[in-house]
Every structure is written in C-alpha cells, then in structure tokens.
Amino acid sequence: MTELAKLKTVEAFINVPVMGINRSVLKKNPKAISEQDKERMRCFWGDDDWIRMFYKDETTLFGPERVKLPLRGLELGNHYRKRLTTVFPYCTEPVLMTNSKGAPLYCILFAGHNATGIKIAGDIFRKYAKEK
C-alpha cells in the first residue's frame, strides 16, 4: 500500500478480511502460526508490528507467555486504518460487514489523496450504515 500511496494518484477501497485473519492466522498461541501465515500477515500489514498489536506478554503459572488479545471486527479495521493514515492523507472510518447472523466478515475502508473522494466514500458508507 505504501508504494501505491507514493503515486499520489490512487484511491482505494480496502477490504480487511477480519474473519479470515481471526480464523486462519491469529492463533491462541502465536508459536502455532505457520511461516506462510506470518509472511501473508507481513505482506498485508507491511511489517511485523501486527504481532505486537494482537498479542501481549503475560506472566502465567508456567512463566512468561505470549497470549492473544481478544479483538473484535472493528478493532482490526481500526488498526489497519491507523496504518493507512501514515501514507494516505484521507481515510474513512472502517465499516464492518457482517453475515446474516451478525458475525464479522470484513471491514471496508477508503483511502486516498483527494478530499472529494473521502467525502463521496463517506456518504456511501453512511448510507449503508443507515440501511443496516
């Protein structure tokens, strides 16, 4: 995303795959995350900061242990938005998309360099939120 932002001509709708991240990547024990999944997260987040965002060190009966923080759908979207705002001057709040049972599927965001683009995307997102 950083390379796209450098162009200053790209606006993007970004899908943060909340369910996919929670189900297939973020494990209770971070040592159980495969190297392939770590690399996918590195590509998606841009670096390894995601480990510090989603896990904390805790002292247990068996000594220090790294444990997963309980994260909800919008929290993942907000973490990604925070990163986007370092490279795009305009970024919407994440909008959580859920399935028919209310389970979070993904967050959608808009990022760009144009104030008009953010206004249009914000209007679309607000309309969706009202209909829901």
Note the main attributes of this structure.
single chain, 132 residues, alpha+beta, four-stranded antiparallel β-sheet, two-stranded antiparallel ribbon, 6 helices, 6 strands, 45% helix
Description:
This protein has 132 residues and is of the alpha+beta class. It has six helices and six strands; from the N terminus they run H-E-H-H-H-E-E-H-E-E-E-H. The strands form two sheets. Strands 1, 4, 5 and 6 form a four-stranded antiparallel beta sheet that branches. It has a two-stranded antiparallel ribbon with strand order 2-3. The mean pLDDT is 87.
> If helices are DSSP runs of H or I spanning 4 or more residues, what is the number of helices?
6
The run of helices and strands is HEHHHEEHEEEH
- Find the count of extended strands (DSSP E, 2+ residues): 6
Q: Mean pLDDT score, rounded?
A: 87
Helicity, as a percent range: 40-55%
**Residue ranges: pLDDT <50 for 5 or more in a row?**
none
Which value, in Å, is the CA radius of gyration? 16 Å
Q: Into which percentage range does the β-strand content fall?
A: 15-25%
Structural class: alpha+beta
The number of distinct structural domains comes to 1
Q: Assign an overall shape.
A: globular
Distance N to C terminus? 30 Å
Largest sheet: 4 strands, antiparallel
Topology:
Blueprint: H1 2-7, E1 12-16, H2 18-25, H3 35-45, H4 49-54, E2 55-60, E3 63-68, H5 73-84, E4 90-91, E5 95-98, E6 104-112, H6 115-131
Antiparallel strand pairs: 1-6, 2-3, 4-6, 5-6
